[in-house]
Amino acid sequence: MNDASNTASGLPSTGNAPLSTPPVDAASVSTPPAGGTSSFGENLEKTWRVAQRLKEEIGRALIGQEAVLRHTLIALFAGGHVLVEGVPGLGKTLLFRALARTFNGSFSRIQFTPDLMPSDVTGHALYDMKAQEFRIRRGPVFTHLLLADEINRAPAKTQAALLEVMQEQQVTIEGQPQALPRPFMVMATQNPIEQEGTYPLPEAQLDRFLLKVLIDYPSLEEERRMIDCVTRHQVGDALNVEAVQPVVAPQTISAIQRITASITVDDRITDYAARIVRATRDWPGIAIGAGPRGSIALIRAARAAAVLEERDFVTPEDIKAVAPPSLRHRITLSPDFEMEGRTPDQLLATLLEHVEVPRQ
C-alpha cells in the first residue's frame, strides 16, 4: 500500500502503472452545497472518473466478469450490500480484495460454517483478570469491506448476527453500540449447487441486500487469459492483488455515496419503480412479491447506475437495468412454476415488458 499521508491528501501514487483515465484529485470530491449545480456537476464528473479508475485497477487482477464488477460498484456507490451467487473459483473473493485495495480500505473474510457462532462475527466481551475489567474484543465485521463467504452454511442464529450490522452499521456488545468504519459493505457469497448442510437465508436477511448478483463462467478467451495470469511465474494459486494500486481514500468513497444519494429522480421515475414492485405482488407465477424495500432498492441502485453513466438524473432505462439484481431475491415463485424450471429473471423480464414506461 502507499503512504497514508499521500492517501489522505488526495490521489495516492500509482507508481509507473499506465493510466487510460486521467488522475483524479480525490480530496476535491465532496458533497455539493445546496443549490450548487456547477459544483455538483464537477463532483459528478470526478466521481465518474474515480469509477473508471476503480474498474481499471480491479481489471489488473480480475479478468472478465464486467457485469458483476459493475453491479458491485453500484452497490458500493449506493451504500448497499451485495449477495453474489455462483460456483466456486469464479473470482468472488478476488474481486472484493481488489476493490478494498483500490481505496485503501480494510478487508475481512469470514468463512461461514455450521459451527460458527454469532460472537465469532460481531465480537464479544472478555474479562481481563489483570485489569479486573471487561474489554471488548471486536470481531471481523469492524472493517470497510466484509466478505461473508458461503453465508448459507451457517445456522440462522449466526446469519441473524449480520442483520444489525447490515441495517444499522453498528454492533451492540454487552449493551453498548459500537459504530463500524465508513464506508461499510458486506459481500456475501453462496454456492447454488451444493445444498446439503446449508441453511437458506431468511427473507428478512435477503431483503437487506441491495442486489443479488449471479456470477457465471468466463468466456473461453477470458479463461485462457486467467490460466496464463495465474500460472505464469507464480507458485500455487494464491490470490494476487499486488498489481492493483490505490486510487482514493475511504473518505472519498463516503463522499461519492453522498453524491449518489443526491442524483435527481423525477416523480414519474419513482412512480415507475413503485408500479414495477407492486406488479410483482399479483403477477402470475409469483407467490410472494417484493416489499417496499424493493422500490427503495430500485431507486438507490438506479441512482448509482446513473452516476456510472455520468448523468445527474435517473432514466427509465436505469430502472430496467437494475431491476433483475434488485428484485430477483425479493420474490418467491409459485411451486408449479419452480417445477417447470422457471427462474425469477424470466418472470421479471416478462413483467417489465408489461409495465408502462414513463415518457417525456
Shape: globular
Low-confidence residue ranges: 1-27, 31-37
Largest sheet: 5 strands, parallel
What strand line-up does the widest sheet have? 2-5-8-1-9
**Strand-residue fraction?**
5-15%
Q: How many strand units? A: 11
For the terminal residues, how far apart are their CA atoms? 48 Å
Mean pLDDT across every amino acid position:
82
Succession of helices and strands: HHHEHEHEEEHEEEHEHHHEHHEHH
Rg measurement, Å: 21 Å
Number of helices: 14
Describe this structure in words.
The chain is an alpha/beta fold and 360 residues long. It is 43% helix and 14% strand. The model is unreliable at 1-27 and 31-37 (pLDDT under 50).
How is the secondary structure organized here?
Elements lengths: L3 H6 L27 H22 L7 H13 L3 E4 L6 H11 L4 E5 L6 H5 E6 L4 E6 L6 E5 L6 H13 L1 E4 L2 E4 L5 E6 L12 H4 L4 E4 L5 H12 L18 H12 L5 H13 L6 E3 L3 H17 L7 H12 L4 E2 L1 H5 L4 H11 L6
Parallel strand pairs: 1-8, 1-9, 2-5, 5-8
Antiparallel strand pairs: 3-4, 6-7, 10-11
Helix pairs in contact: 3-11, 10-11, 11-12, 12-14
